[in-house]
């Protein structure tokens, strides 16, 4: 696969990142206890980044994603999208759901892409149809606009799911372990498909995984989080990686480095 160059630059006029997570502490409060999920986590995502949150189970990756989506408010710090504080959910941030097979099977591809636009009352029927067709063209699915999901491959269903999200014209796409339940070969195929689509459309992506390998394949930047509660351990650039360089010495060295950064603090001294 060809090398992927991200256009990861701050906004040319303002210098503002697409997403700023600034000293964010997140907690769950139940009547019996307070669970601290993350502690003072900071990172910036630039337009065109494929930004990956990587860390062991329970380090607060999903919680961070929920907070960016606006479903949970920080108890400390702030999340900003293009400089505006995130105060709740909004159509400018779209979560691409995990199970691509959950596309309603009775709706055609075009109807599936139109659905969120209509359900959120973003557009009327005629405009929604035009937007859906324009988005399908962008992701190379025009020929399948009237097809039903069961006639598509897994990779194409993922394209439809992402097209559905992109049709809302979000500023950032959010994906939480979307390939976790897949077998290894299908997972690789879906990663490939995601990267190919990014090549074509250059959306901004925030992607959660606990797979070191997947983080390096998908991400151009990877944030390493410590075990519970999540704190930032390091941020790495993975721009030189590709699916074909997976077994390379550089990738192996980075995998060792990530292991060390994630787990060396846990070893007894
Ligand atoms: N609804 C909730 N109520 C209370 N505690 C929660 C809730 N959801 C998550 N937690 C706790 O918050 C911490 C962070 O959870 P989170 O799901 O964000 O981690 P994660 O890194 O995404 O883990 P995984 O990779 O296993 O999904 C964990 O200790 C978890 O038990």
Automatic annotation (TrEMBL):
Which keywords belong to this entry?
Answer: ATP-binding, Nucleotide-binding, Transport
What residue spans carry the region label Disordered?
A: 1-20
Keyword rRNA processing annotated: no
Say yes or no: keyword rRNA processing present: no
InterPro entries on file: AAA+_ATPase, ABC_transporter-like_ATP-bd, ABC_transporter-like_CS, ABC_transporter_ATP-bind, P-loop_NTPase
Q: Which domain of life is it from?
A: Bacteria
Stated name of the protein: ABC transporter ATP-binding protein
